[in-house]
Amino acid sequence: MNSSKEILIEKIISYLPGGDCGGHGGCGKKTCRECAESVIEGKEVNLCPACSREQVDSIAEALGRETVKVIKKVAFVACSGKPFTENRISGAASCIEAKERRQKPGGCKNGCIGLGSCIEVCRFGAMSLKEQKIIIDRDKCNGCGACADEDVCIQKIIRIIPAEATNFIPCSSAEEDEDIVRDNCGFGCIACGECERACPTGSISIINNHAVIDYSKCSGCNACVTKCKKKIIVDLIHDVTKLKEKVAFVACRGGYKSGELMKKAGFESCKEAMLYSNPGDNSLCTTGCIGLGDCTKVCRYDAVSMVNGTAKVDTDKCVGCKDCVYTCSRKLIKIVPYKGARMIPCSSVADYKEKAEICAVGCAGCGDCEENCPNDAIYMEGRHCVVDPDTCENCHACEYICSRGVIEDRTVPEYNYLQRAVLKLSEGD
Fold first, then answer.
1. Domain spanning 243-340 has what CATH number?
2. What digits encode the pLDDT tens for the residues 179-207?
3. Closest by alpha carbon to 393, among 415, 376, 405?
4. Mapping DSSP to helix (H, G, I), strand (E, B) and coil, where does residue 254 land?
5. What's the pLDDT at 304?
6. Which of 31, 293, 405, 420 is most buried, by the most CB atoms less than 10 A from its CB?
């Protein structure tokens, strides 16, 4: 017959989620039995971090103790970029083995390795591997912490966070050079500190060259999502594509001819075409869109597309992350205010006669719009006109006066309430 202690142990075990995390779980014990024994001997009734509030209440009642507050938690992988192993390490049986092997140069050294060692220790079926990326099922995850153990995740990038958290920063990069971060991964934090400065509760800090959220302080206000330059902060509640101050704009709309010729010449990217071609030899604009779509390949929001051979930005989808800006070989893509202002999609520095021969939709550089702007918001730059969006009051005078119909009227959706609150906009802005 079982002793009273044995009966109590079995009772406590029955209240635990089960699974035996093999010593990797947050309780620090190898088995659920050891965890139950420790609780009976005086450890906290919520020693098992995977227990729900009801389970902790039942354990406390069985032991005649006061119950404690339970905060439901889940695992979060602080990485959303290319797997560590991609094109660099092959044949390794585990993440630890892959880490220990000699790596090929390039790529983020702090991100997910992508071999799924964490999946093997998850006893609740909450983790899966898709395209070498770890996917966590929040409905199945109970925050036991086994996957986050340093002996499992050698990169130390799995965090156990409150289940009610709504904002996440999926990056653990320790790289100091912003250009390298951008080249390595479109989701990488560049440690600009904008989110840290914008946070009203002081819950964000730059630690080891990437932003980290202290969830004990985070109120989920969304200011960090709005201010993030790279727009990598994940928000489970709000639509990040509608929470922005600025969007990208392509200062060209006549690249169709260039793109076709570059493809026939065998070039596959704008960068390659820039290095090995001479647009002038083909009567092409030497400052316009090359038309091979490097910018479309780096956009994570499907906001940049090729329209008639020229890059075009969908302002509804664009979040102003600047990935396309850094990728454009001609530096044609600018970041402009989301709320509007006329824009002139041309960067040509050619004289009028040459422009007329090469492009029918470029700025002629006549200066009529500059002379007739009542707010002095337009100026000449390299034989084409430029609108200063901070000065422009959208009066439409330049559109009426432009003989070539080049000036673009950018229609932007109305700001919603949340945008006004986060961006501190008043009615009418």
1. 3.30.70.20
2. 888 888 888 999 999 999 989 899 999 99
3. 376
4. coil
5. 94
6. 293
